[in-house]
From TrEMBL:
Protein name: Calcium-activated potassium channel subunit alpha-1
Cellular compartment(s): Cell membrane
Similarity comment: family membership: Belongs to the potassium channel family. Calcium-activated (TC 1.A.1.3) subfamily. KCa1.1/KCNMA1 sub-subfamily.
Region (Disordered): 1-65, 708-734, 1160-1209
Keywords on record: Calcium, Cell membrane, Ion channel, Ion transport, Lipoprotein, Magnesium, Membrane, Metal-binding, Palmitate, Phosphoprotein, Potassium, Potassium channel, Potassium transport, Transmembrane, Transmembrane helix, Transport, Voltage-gated channel
UniProt subunit comment: Homotetramer; which constitutes the calcium-activated potassium channel. Interacts with beta subunits KCNMB1, KCNMB2, KCNMB3 and KCNMB4. Interacts with gamma subunits LRRC26, LRRC38, LRRC52 and LRRC55. Beta and gamma subunits are accessory, and modulate its activity. Interacts with RAB11B.
Gene3D superfamilies for the chain: 1.10.287.70, NAD(P)-binding Rossmann-like Domain
Domain RCK N-terminal: 409-551, 786-930
Pfam families per record: BK_channel_a (PF03493), Ion_trans (PF00520), Slo-like_RCK (PF22614), Slowpoke_C (PF21014)
GO cellular component, one term: monoatomic ion channel complex
Signal peptide: none
Amino acid sequence: MANGGGGGGGSSSSGGGGGGGGSSLRMSSNIHANHLSLDASSSSSSSSSSSSSSSSSPSSSSVHEPKMDALIIPVTMEVPCDSRGQRMWWAFLASSMVTFFGGLFIILLWRTLKYLWTVCCHCGGKTKEAQKINNGSSQADGTLKPVEEKEEAVAAEVGWMTSVKDWAGVMISAQTLTGRVLVVLVFALSIGALVIYFIDSSNPIESCQNFYKDFTLQIDMAFNVFFLLYFGLRFIAANDKLWFWLEVNSVVDFFTVPPVFVSVYLNRSWLGLRFLRALRLIQFSEILQFLNILKTSNSIKLVNLLSIFISTWLTAAGFIHLVENSGDPWENFQNNQALTYWECVYLLMVTMSTVGYGDVYAKTTLGRLFMVFFILGGLAMFASYVPEIIELIGNRKKYGGSYSAVSGRKHIVVCGHITLESVSNFLKDFLHKDRDDVNVEIVFLHNISPNLELEALFKRHFTQVEFYQGSVLNPHDLARVKIESADACLILANKYCADPDAEDASNIMRVISIKNYHPKIRIITQMLQYHNKAHLLNIPSWNWKEGDDAICLAELKLGFIAQSCLAQGLSTMLANLFSMRSFIKIEEDTWQKYYLEGVSNEMYTEYLSSAFVGLSFPTVCELCFVKLKLLMIAIEYKSANRESRILINPGNHLKIQEGTLGFFIASDAKEVKRAFFYCKACHDDITDPKRIKKCGCKRLIYFEDEQPSTLSPQKKQRNGGMRNSPSSSPKLMRHDPLLIPGNDQIDNMDSNVKKYDSTGMFHWCAPKEIEKVILTRSEAAMTVLSGHVVVCIFGDVSSALIGLRNLVMPLRASNFHYHELKHIVFVGSIEYLKREWETLHNFPKVSILPGTPLSRADLRAVNINLCDMCVILSANQNNIDDTSLQDKECILASLNIKSMQFDDSIGVLQANSQGFTPPGMDRSSPDNSPVHGMLRQPSITTGVNIPIITELAKPGKLPLVSVNQEKNSGTHILMITELVNDTNVQFLDQDDDDDPDTELYLTQPFACGTAFAVSVLDSLMSATYFNDNILTLIRTLVTGGATPELEALIAEENALRGGYSTPQTLANRDRCRVAQLALLDGPFADLGDGGCYGDLFCKALKTYNMLCFGIYRLRDAHLSTPSQCTKRYVITNPPYEFELVPTDLIFCLMQFDHNAGQSRASLSHSSHSSQSSSKKSSSVHSIPSTANRQNRPKSRESRDKQKKEMVYR
């Protein structure tokens, strides 16, 4: 013993010092040798720890040996511990074993007795029943009462026990708040007890401790008292006591709670089996579910696997720590080794992973035996659990977090059809540099994780874009993206889907889900079909007054195409105006240079300065164009009843009010601020518009004519990029008749005939059967149509409906007189057109030729060479998977028409007046009677005349475009082709040099207005968000005057309703329309020969209230040599000094002319010859006589004077 020492299997040469130092050694040496050997070997771990803690003794620096010879139990004078140094581990273990087996014995004994009692009672019951039968019914009444009393007593006892059991079950269940708190508290205390074990594991396995001075023992004692009470509740609530006694949590309590009480009694601590508390970690997933933290199956499974793996790992490490630091009992505990708990954790990990470095290993027989069995189970667990855990973590949503709102920064949520194409187009426009400081964060929400390309796009815009994986149909995902605090929610639609109705239904469900979660959120959604917009009105919280908008792609697409029938190229100009394009500078004098200068213009809004108050609209418009270099086309007007509406070029009768919002065409938002900063006192003499900035003087109101009505100014909109407040967001309302000067010449006949729909916005006729408007090929060939619109439509009985009503409505707007309406001829499958006819049967001048647009015979029958416009549409585009083939029908039809040759025996401008009147037209009507005349009016072309005809028809001048045989080819037929895939535009023009990778807006067909793709409408989403007035203005221009009232009516009846003409409905005709002004002849011909665009702008505005906003120019007009090319391109908002050429066509907003609807004589070009009168858009033309031809030449002054009286009144 003199040479023995403790600590990690080593010994000190001079004797190991324990907790009591040398006194322990002397005390141990007085013990009898036989007894000493047993006692000394019983606690190697305790002596080892004690020896290492006595570093101040001389023996602490001695050399350690692999085995200890004796064991010392630390003893102090303050702790009344066993003076003989005996180990008492068996007492702690015995308390647990007695508790476990004793309780198990009692339960089994109780069950046995209960079973025997039940058997005896069952047998006794049968005997009593036999006696009752033998004794008869007389004794039955006497024995019934005691039995009933006994049963009542048993029932009362059972009821009391059941109540206690139910109370205990409620207390330990997580169904109530008390139960959840108790369950969470028990788990937290179990983890706390495990932490105390980790702390105590650094001490010897068994040591003397004073309960009153050991703080950790006191805390552990309090925890275990609570565990004991909770064990009692669980025991009472258990239905099967035996299974409860054998379950894991009960076994943990048996081997952890009783030893604590023993340690208090013996004043010594044994680390023992306290590591079993780690098994409580298995319940970790249940606790998180009780707290509503874990909700998905994957997260629950992941936490389950982790908790089982970690609890098994920590528990096994505790057992190795116990046996290795204690040693084998049959070896007198002399083969122990000092291992810390964390070294045991490390040992089991390298064992489970089959690495086994060998630096730490088990020396005791118990430890090695345990390792043999643990390797079998642990290796299997490691091999199955770890890969599954890694898979679950790897499959965990990368974008499954939550959005954290940034103070002072708004965010929007974008959902729906999220693809690389849709997102890139959206971001390109939304984050364009021309917008003034877009301080908005974009949050994308989609249920499919992005691919690598889309992920790279998000990373490039990581400062303003975030992506989260989820669905707007899930309220939890809506909470993740903070939809309640979002500024708006934008829903993108799949424009290329095979089933548009299903796509619209999906987006409507998204709107319902979002509005159900937060009714006040502003929603802007894309819709494919016009008739599906009606379903949005069924949502109670849908309110367009609060900024909710539905962008119907079919309505706008066909509206753009319809406007191109009235003024070709307008679709391109409007599409470029609401799209954000960067300025591309080209030095060469090519058509691309002028086109791109116009492309850089966008639509903006800004409040007008008080310096404009009291001035008329044309005066302000001229001042803005000349001095501020801004083009104002419309204003937001507030009527006396405070209703706001948008008026496009309202005329000189309207005066600007305080706080009027103007709509401008400019290159960026900073330029538009000049209209707000302008001050007459400070900026009147400034010639450079860039110097017009905010001045320091007080805002004054300058006006000349009359005092305007004072209105409180609205909240200032700082730029065209930022949206207005919802309260100041006007929508398209009915035209106020009080704003329009009275016209005494309105036909009284209109009030007795239903010529317009109930709103007065569109021409209307009684519903017609489709058979009455069908033309056979022979009938069409006998009918000489001219100046009409041919619509080539591809579709069949299974095709999705395009919604042709949206194409016809703008062409039947009431701001056209009846004789100005272009006849519309549909060429296509009769099965498809029958499905569309229900929405078309109320419109006049519509005919159908059953056939196919690929048949040249059908095209010749409808005189396609004499039409004003040929529209090519397809309803089969989205049924093809290959995107390159989606437009094959439209491309083939376009190339087929261009390759056609026509006979010149009649001439391009002449047609036989004798022929078959198309169905749907009343030949007896004066508007439909044949009109003798040769020329369409060359000065004003509201899309009525073909530019080629205008150029050839100028009397007294040689045309710049030479007349040859090519004039009779189909290449000179005006047409517009709808495309789905932008890249297919390269196939429309075989003679252009466009790169296949060129963006659509840079291609020649789009610049010329001969191609239109629905993708250009994507920019409306961001434009509408920043300014919802832009969408209202666009819809006003392209739909012909659709109003919310009309949409509600169509939603109810799916058709227009006729109405009698009243002063109110007739006043709705007084609205602007788009026209094309020819400079080759007429009152502006003098400006066509090298004049300035600004002079034309001012003259048209002052003289005729016509607002010019662009030029439609021949592609090769800049060349010095004459060219045979008749292609034109669009120039948007040219500058003041822009030079004009005679062949230019000017886009303008023209006022409604009441006099044009009167007698035919008022339309005559000459008062000397009524036979040479021409009719705009006449459907039937006659061959003019020689006398008529001879009477054509007139002096320019005479023509100008007559046209001023005739057209621009």
